[in-house]
Amino acid sequence: MINRNDILETVNMISKDHLDIRTITMGISLLDCGGDSKTFSDKIYDKITKRAEKLVAVGEEIEKEYGIPIINKRVSVTPIAIAGAGLDVEGFVNAAKAMDRAADTLGINFIGGYSALVQKGMSNADVNLINSIPQALAETSRVCSSVNIGSTKAGINMDAVKRMGEIIKETAYLTKDSGSIGCAKLVVFANAPDDNPFMAGAFHGVGEGETVLNVGVSGPGVVKTAVEKLVNADMEQLSAEIKRTAFKITRMGQLVALEASKRLGVPFGIVDLSLAPTPAIGDSVAEILEAMGIGQCGGCGTTAALAMLNDAVKKGGVMASSKVGGLSGAFIPVSEDAGMIKAVNDGVLSIEKLEAMTAVCSVGLDMIAVPGDTPAAVLSAMIADEAAIGVINAKTTAVRVIPAYGTKVGDSVDFGGLLGSAPVMKISSCDPSVFVNRCGMIPAPIHSLKN
Amino acid sequence: MNAVITVTGKDSKGIIAKVSTVCTEYGANIVDISQSVLRDYFVMFMIADISELKIKLAEFVDVMDDLAEKNGLKIQTMHEDIFNAMHRI
User: What is the DSSP letter of A414?
Assistant: First the structure.
């Protein structure tokens, strides 16, 4: 029989510590939707709305029966540059609008997969899609875009890196009336995973099946509460407790994933073991690190604390799920984490420290606002730095940076909802344009030659 | 198939009666119950067999939520699988 303490623990995790399923994301292949612009748009709208018809209803049903909040129900699709190869810029923008309409019909807040994979070079379709990103993000509200510009196997495509700096600037300008929010829906990846359920970087990889259901769990608040109780514990005890907590969180994710998969008739893909913060107080990754005793997030010790947290979450979670994938690690999106925002405003957390932190966790420089007049070359160089960390260390890294139009250091940009509000951070003013303009490929590292 | 019903709130007369009446009305059979009162604070854990529930579990959750609201209580009604998943290997 179920133990009273176990019942109480679960109920408290949900009601007090914000334990939730962050997202159930249905991946849908659009590889069979080819055609001219109108045909493609019609076909993808029909396929997405048909396949994911019951996603929201089933999500809400499970939420109620199990008493566990499922915050987001979302859809990811085959990278549109591949599914819509042959389209011109206008054709791609129309496809984005069709995706947006489909998301609206389904009642979901984000749809991912307006993406291109250009780690080794750009096809004509990739070039057109990338050129269409600013307009597509400005003229839709639910579409998320991502571009993979490097991988451990291929190296870093500096032509694409250069272009993405410019695209981010254009997107910021075209969405300037809403805090340059377009940039919050645009991720530049290195080593992008095919089965990530989290936005804005989710897409349905080309090696995936027709449809798949991926689940992202969360629970920074639960881990923080567990850590706070261990005031005098040594590192091993701390790590063991985080593992135990991560195990419980992931088991819940696995249960929901299997149940949703059964009810929707869609194969279960993976559980993504990530600690994803929200702007709510007590749901912060920074606060976990602070509970470990580093003082404030961004101070010395932050990277070590984060490394241990990230590792323990994976170790605890991996046994709890039959299939683990996606990003699986702690997220550090500045605007979405109350503790990070405070640390930036207090002058303790800098972009340089965040970059170091990304070497030991997922994903990268995430939801960081920088002054509106930051040159495109600086953004490109920032992307190259982050990609280098990912490519050399064989991990996923990403940049989601918002050069918020018209802002300067010390301002704040409010995006609302889960995207939170971002303090505008200081970024190096050195000019890296000669480096960025060299273009070409940074070759793959020696350890990519594994065969 | 069981549901775990957790009831908390300020103690008053007849809480168990009210909850069990609703359970009976909708075909949930109580298989285990434990309750205590600590400084006027009422806590009850109830496990009910819901295999013969007359309505969907999601609808039963709504009925329990209504009952909680009317009586100034907090009632959580959850499928037992979530506890088994989290606390059993």
Answer: E
Residues of chain A found within 8 Å of residue B50, distances taken between Cβ atoms:
none
The domains found in chain A, sorted by start residue, are 23-190 (3.20.70.20)
Q: What residues of chain A, 292 to 311, have a C-beta less than 8 Å from chain B?
A: none
Assembly ipTM = 0.87
Q: What is the pLDDT at residue A139?
A: 97
Average pLDDT, chain A: 95
A378/B40 Cα distance (integer angstroms): 62
Angle at A395 between CA A389 and CA A397, to 5 degrees: 60
Reported as a single tens digit per residue, the pLDDT across A67-118 is 999 999 999 999 999 999 999 999 999 999 999 999 999 999 999 999 999 9
Interchain contact B75–A (C-beta under 8 A): no
Indicate the residue of A4, A6, A64 with minimum beta-carbon distance to B61: A64
Vertex A354: Cα angle to A350 and A357 (nearest 5): 145
- Range from A40-49, A74-83, A252-261, A272-281 carrying the lowest mean pLDDT: A272-281
> Cβ contact (<8 Å) for A67 and B78?
yes
For the full predicted model, state whether its pTM sits above 0.90: yes
Domain containing residue B18: CATH number: 3.30.70.260
Tell me whether B79 touches chain A (CB under 8 Å): yes
Instruction: Please count the structural domains in chain B.
Output: 1
SS3 annotation, A290-325: HHHCCCCCCCCCHHHHHHHHHHHHHHHHHCCCCCEC
Structural domain span for residue B59: 2-87
pLDDT range class, residue A3, cuts 50, 70, 90: confident
Which residue among B45, B57, B62 places its CB closest to the CB of A7?
B45
> With contacts defined as CB-CB under 8 Å, which chain B residues touch A11?
6, 76, 78
